[in-house]
Every structure is written in C-alpha cells, then in structure tokens.
Amino acid sequence: MKTFFRLVALVKPYLWWMALAAFIGFATTGSGIGLLMTSAYIIAKAALQPPMVALQVGIAGVRFFGLARGAFRYAERLISHNITFKILAKLRLWFYDAIEPLAPARLMHFKSGDLLQRVVDDIQSLENIYTRVLGPPLTALLVTALMWFLLGSYSVSAAMIILCFHTLAGIGVPILTMQLSRGISVGIMKHKAEEQVLALDLIQGIGELQLYGNLPAHLAAMQSAETGKLQLQRKNAVIEGLHESLTGLLMNGAVITILWTLIPSISSGATANGIALSVITLAVMASFEPFLPLPSTIKHIEADQHAGERLFEILDAKPETIAPANPIPFPSEHAIQVKRLSFTYPGSTAKALDSLSFSVLPGEHIAIVGPSGAGKSTITALFMRFWNSREGCINIGGHNITLFDPEELRRNIALVSQKTYLFAETIRENLTLAAPGATDDDLKKALTAAGLSHFASKLDEWCGQHGMKLSGGERQRIAIARILLQRAPIMILDEATANLDGITEKEVTETLTAISAGKTLITITHRLKAMEKYHRIFVLEKGKIVEQGVHSELMAGNGLYRRMWELQHMTELG
Ligand SMILES: Nc1ncnc2c1ncn2[C@@H]1O[C@H](COP(=O)(O)OP(=O)(O)OP(=O)(O)O)[C@@H](O)[C@H]1O
C-alpha cells in the first residue's frame, strides 16, 4: 500500500482540481437522477390528465436536467483528462530525468524492452489513478448521500433499503471482484512486458536468430506470452461481465424491495402516492450508474500498485555518478595523472584494474595496449565516469575528476569507441548531438575533415535504423565528425578502428591522426598498428601495467608487447 500512497502523493498538486472533477461527476449523475425523476413525474402526472400548467414545472425540470447532464459530463471529462495528462507528462519527465544518470552502470541489469514497457505502458496505466481509482468512489459516495437525503425525506425505510443496496454495490461487489481477479492485472502486465522484451530482441537480433535457426523458438516464446496474456484477458472479461450483472441485479433488487415496501402505503393512502412511487423507482435506477465502475477500481489499484513499484524501482535507484554540489570548472591546463587506480565490477571478485598509475602530458599521444580482458575499456569507463573507482584517482589539471560536473567532463573528453551508435535520424541530427549550436557550415566542414565530403550535401539524409544505411567505415567517420564538432582538448579512441577492414582502417586511422594533432590523445587498442607514432605506450595485462616505453624500446625487450606484435604480424603475413 506504501507504493499506492506514494502514487497518490504525486497527484497532490492537483487535489483541488480532482475534488472539483469528482463534484462535477456527482453533479452529472445527480442531473441524470433529476432527469429521470422529472420525466417519471410528467409521465405519471399526465396519465391523470391534469391541466397543462400543472406539468410546467416538470417540463422545465426535464429541460434543465437534460442540458445540465450533458454540460456537466463535458466539464468533468475535460477536467479529469486535463489532470490525467498533466500527471502523465510529469511522470514521464521524472522517469527520463531519473534514467539518464543511471546509464550505463545501473541499467546494465534491465532489458531494453522492459525499460520501454515501463516508460510507455506502466506510466500509461497510471492514468487510471484518477479517472478510475480516486474519482468514481468519491462520486459514488456523494450519490449515496444524495439518495439517502432524497428518499429519507420521503420514507425512512426506503432510505435504509437504498443504503443497504448501495453498500452491497459499492463494497460487496468490488470485494468479490477483487477476490476473483487477484493477480490478473499484474499477470497481464507481466506478459506484456515479456512480449515487449521478446519483440525488441526479435527486431534487433533477427539476423542472428535466422542464422542460428532460433527464429521458430523465439516466435514460439512470443506466442506463449501472447497466449498467457489472452487467457488472463478472457478471465478478466468474464469477471467484468459478472460484476456488471451483479450491479444490475442489485439495482433491480433495490427497485423491487422499495416498491414492495411502499406499495402498501399507497393502498392505505398513508404516505406514498402513485406519482411519487414512479419518481422514486427511476431515481433508484439512475443512482446505480456511479457504482458500475467501482469493481474495476479495485483491479486498477492492483495494476497501478505494480506499475508504481516498477517505476519507483528506477526512480529510487541511486546513480553511479552524482554531480558535486559545487563543481569546479574544467581546467585549461589538462595534464592527466592516474594514481593507484583499482576497480572491481559489482558482483565480480577479480579486479579489472589493479593499482594502475600513469600520466599523460598535455598534447602527448599515448597508447594503452593489451590482450582482451586486460582492463583497457574499463579505463575509458572510469575516465568518462560511467563507473567510479573507490580506490585511487584520476586527476586532470591537478584536480580529481570527481570534482567536475560529469557533463562538463564528458564535453571535454571526446570519445570514439568501437561501436558508434547512430540514431534513426538524419545526418544533421546525428552530428548536432555533439554540438547543438553548430551551423550547417560547421557540419559540412566537419564531414569533409572526417573524410565524408560526399555527405556534406546530404545533411537531411536519413541514416536508417542504427545507421544501417551507412557502412562501418562511414559510421566511424560520423563519430570522427562528431568529435571535431565537440572540440574537446582530450581524445580517447577505444578500439575506434577495430571493426574496419584493413584499407578503411588505414584511412580512418590517418584521419584520426590528423585531427588529434595538438590534442591529448589516449588510444586504447589490442591491435598493434602504426605504434611508432605514440610518445609512450603502456602495456596492460590483468589490470596492471607490465611494460612501458616507445615502440622501439618495447620491441627490444622480450615481453608481452613484442610477443603480441610478432603474433599479430605473423598472422597477417601468414
Ligand atoms: N560490466 C561488467 N561487469 C562485470 N565485469 C566486467 C564488466 N565489464 C567488463 N568486465 C570484466 O572486467 C575485465 C576487464 O574488461 P575490459 O572490457 O576492460 O577489458 P578490455 O581489455 O577492454 O577487453 P577487450 O579488448 O576484449 O574489449 C574483464 O575480465 C571483463 O570480463
């Protein structure tokens, strides 16, 4: 229930609007009751053939309640939907704000499809919190009070009867529905989330699924999630039918019981007359309208609770990197010093980096090389503060990088990794990501310098899903154009050319060398190509620096570097 109250707290700023909407909802049902009461009055009275003037009040009542009902319904929908959309927009913004600092460290354990489900469906389902959960019970309560007052002023026994039947419809039927439908809404949500995860995997990994013959098994899993969802939806429909029939039954039960109680008093001429009886009958029937949605309220509480838990799981997660309260500006002098840096990934026992120390002078070009799993990419992740080390530190310009605003730090370190992500947008949008204020002229210059002059006239060309319309080399060149636009003084190239064929790799490397002139460069690679150009090379093995020097010095030794170099060059020659 804690989650539910947290969700209710979210709508606190709209409490007065919600109260107004509930009151207008009550006015709508009240007008419906008034409409039927005045209609019954006219029909019953007309049967006694009175003069026309005796019907005037009734006719005016029908006109008034008929028009008022429509106007109130419209106002109630307008206000409640307005509140709902405001709440949804607020929740979505919260979610995006919360998710951004969690990437990538805290999102590692979530599947993309599941996150998509949370941001789209879970938040959407919370729109019911006002329209189906908070509003209808309030309206039903007000209608019960109105009927108690209307009937009570006429007959106390009729008022007691309507109270009993309203209590059964407002509490008994919803509790029964809750017992019968326990777990259904949550089950439907779980199946939907499962389907979403599988659908996204299907879209993204269709090539692999086809290649390894796993497509039928994947489709079967999707089918099974769909079947599970359909079975629960069918059960849900049966229960919904049942509660609607029960509410109808109670409405008719209330009418019959009240008639049965009041008819004797007409015969005896004590309190009731025939006209009043027909008015009461129709009023009782109309008063059950706000009780119809109550059983779904209970189901929505369960669904909202589950959706809320899934959202709060993200909203409450502590980001790996928190910006300091008073960040210091990024220095203009940016010598780098890594001191006794160690790092162990959560859940792992082995150190990915073990007391690593090295320094890079401003404008110096260094390479960090080593076999797969040596910890090279972990260094990049710590520099960009995707992860944070608890042992040792990275200093830039003499300041620990934790003292900078992470966003400013990332603006000043340009990163090209092995896999450049391109959004399913135009070339322009994929470039302005790095420099939102860049002009078309800037973009064209960057494209030309990155070796993509043929794209300079195609800024509005769509890149395709994940940049599929571009070759691997072109995608890496877009990344180069991005870092040119970013104009950062420090560059990290993390296996930037690893996925390219020999000729493209050579061309892209030449472009990268040209644009890194005058900047501090850290190249991270396991491929020992053109190593002569680096001022210093650090050889990493199992998270430790085992050798360092220039290419010729390392080749003169008989260590890991030389063995890696010989192995790679022998393989290439062979
Ligand atoms: N997110 C993670 N969670 C747990 N362990 C990880 C994670 N990422 C990397 N590791 C482990 O940390 C160690 C260093 O990984 P890292 O990716 O830094 O190596 P690398 O030298 O860049 O390798 P490669 O050249 O293959 O990319 C490896 O043992 C790896 O299994």
UniProtKB/TrEMBL annotation:
It comes from the Bacteria. It is a multi-pass membrane protein. GO terms for molecular function: ABC-type transporter activity; ATP binding; ATP hydrolysis activity; ATPase-coupled lipid transmembrane transporter activity. Residues 336-567 form the ABC transporter domain. The keyword Cell division does not apply. Keywords: ATP-binding, Cell membrane, Membrane, Nucleotide-binding, Transmembrane, Transmembrane helix, Transport. This is ABC transporter, transmembrane region, type 1.
